[in-house]
Amino acid sequence: MCVVSMVAVDLEGPYEPRVRRADLGAAGVTSDLGRGLQGSEPSAPGDSEAPPYRMFRWERSIPLRGSAAALCNNLSVLQLPARNLTYFGVVHGPSAQLLSAAPEGVPLAQRQLHAKEGAGVSPPLITQVHWCVLPFRVLLVLTSHRGIQMYESNGYTMVYWHALDSGDASPVQAVFARGIAASGHFICVGEGAKGTWSGRVLVFDIPAKGPNIVLSEELAGHQTPITDIATEPAQGQDCVADMVTADDSGLLCVWRSGPEFTLLTRIPGFGVPCPSVQLWQGIIAAGYGNGQVHLYEAATGNLHVQINAHARAICALDLAPEVGKLLSAGEDTFVHIWKLSRSPESGYIEVEHCHGECVSDTQLCGARFCDSSGSSFAVTGYDLAEIRRFSSV
Amino acid sequence: MSVRTLPLLFLNLGGEMLYILDQRLRAQNIPGDKARKVLNDIISTMFNRKFMEELFKPQELYSKKALRTVYERLAHASIMKLNQASMDKLYDLMTMAFKYQVLLCPRPKDVLLVTFNHLDTIKGFIQDSPTILQQVDETFRQLTEIYGGLSAGEFQLIRQTLLIFFQDLHIRVSMFLKDKVQNNNGRFVLPVSGPVPWGTEVPGLIRMFNNKGEEVKRIEFKHGGNYVPAPKEGSFELYGDRVLKLGTNMYSVNRPVETHMSGSSKNLASRTQESIAPNPLAKEELNFLARLMGGMEIKKPSGPEPGFRLNLFTTDEEEEQAALTRPEELSYEVINIQATQDQQRSEELARIMGEFEIMEQPRLSTSKGDDLLAMMDEL
Lengths: 393, 379
Hints:
Chain B: GO terms for molecular function: transmembrane transporter activity. Chain A is mainly beta. Chain A contains one helix and 31 strands.
């Protein structure tokens, strides 16, 4: 394989020589070339230690038909270990791209989905695409400025369409859907209205098979558009929170799922949006527009950890539930991996920084672990027509 | 996306246009009084009350092509004329400059400071015209009224809307390349050093709290960047230190502005995707253009004032050459659907996996709307 690389070496005074890799473009770069060059990580000023042992290496990128849009949570990954496949989903704008890849990142097939046209003449923009793993099936959900589309997991058959209630509303009041998560046999989707105070969570009841999907509940609790929803299995206990919803004002609502969803706690915002949220063993991880990651106790709503994690807004969080690893990606071009735990003495939430990676000159917009042990992850970036993959050495 | 984006987009692009025209007028040695007249005429048309009223109505963003038509008319609001090649280049420079500013804005709200920087400089161009100054100040007040109270979340949506507008635009600008703010592949450099945005902490600290909210532990970690705290917040008042340099005039007589049209072939795939989707907007765009330009009061040239042609290139030959060699995918006239190699390859691969649908949408190539749009291009 012929690879063209443009590399500039910066020698900046007291800092270690930093090799900046220019964009090597699409269609795969072998890791041999990459070793020692990728993920430029400039040392801090006055730092005379060697750079930290590199835990991850840049793997072969997967080319995209269209670049990723500057949205948050703009990457969804479905692992299918039994079939030795991974599905990726990325929003380009008016279209979303689904593709399947073999273990080494070899792209196999691609498909494009568009938002269903409704009333109105503006081209509908997609806000998010996400796979929902339910007990008996996997559905692909696509949210847009028109409504919510649900497909079988490979994206071939649309099984359900829910039009958002825009009606004769002027452009100022038009609604859009954003925020998707599976909770037991439900799929929850967030909704928001542009310019007015409204943010609802729609709860859809999904049968084991077939298209008889029913909107079973509309949850109120937010007053600004929903940004993200996180869920985790209820773990058999009765009063345990198993869903968190976040919105543009930074407010978090903590819920217990069931035939009827119950609002347990509200965690107020502090003036910045919360674009991304995760839930793991009763720990809420929330990423904010000011670059901070907060960890809250879901049962009490108390803040236990505050991380100054990024220098720009956080665009995505992901969890590797088997090991309690958290991934944060920001518009500052950085990805960080954290290890969540509880103190054996106090039971309080603790966190440890594991690794940081710089994706040069790329405003990230999506990031996901590619396996449940957190040993590999993928990112998307604004204007980037590929999915960048990293795996641990 | 956000329905409040157009005024910001329009005013900032307009500001960049004025910076470039001002630089070219001086570089081409146009007599001072003529140059001033051109700028005055354009600015007064831009900030005309009726026009601003239309602009500030909540509405979706329209295509780059529709917006270009407005700027072409604006550029011809006076005795100055531009050939197609120069107008194309002007629009390229304007869009890349503002894309750079949006991308590098520390906070989404800072795009308002960028807008104010443009307005501040525009006021410098028309110091001798109190009436036009008043129009600009009025626009200032309108901006403050509408955007002053928006939340961080709403600004984030505006920023995302602007970035979607500029998606896949990678024209290389020689000044950006020289200043090392743009890479050779057309992508902008995103520095990982410098001050953090106002309201953001320098990364690297983890604080842990107990049930009572008391801090019990503090850990530092290596975040990889080289950031320092923000010095102070820029002013959103009518007059004040904006602190942010984005949106100030970076052109001077001695810096010729060139764009490189080559090197954009990598983006062919993404561009093609954009054009394959049908354009039901055509009719809606025409309505938008009609409304907006209806509000423009173009002053008819009074007296025997002779017009002149401004050239965005250094020589006439260069301008002609640029017109001939402009890559098709960057043309603002025609959107082409091309079967690319990508599509063929995908068909192959998809056959292995099973069924595959090629989404082929018919293009409105012969609709009346397009004819009207073409006509307007010639205004």
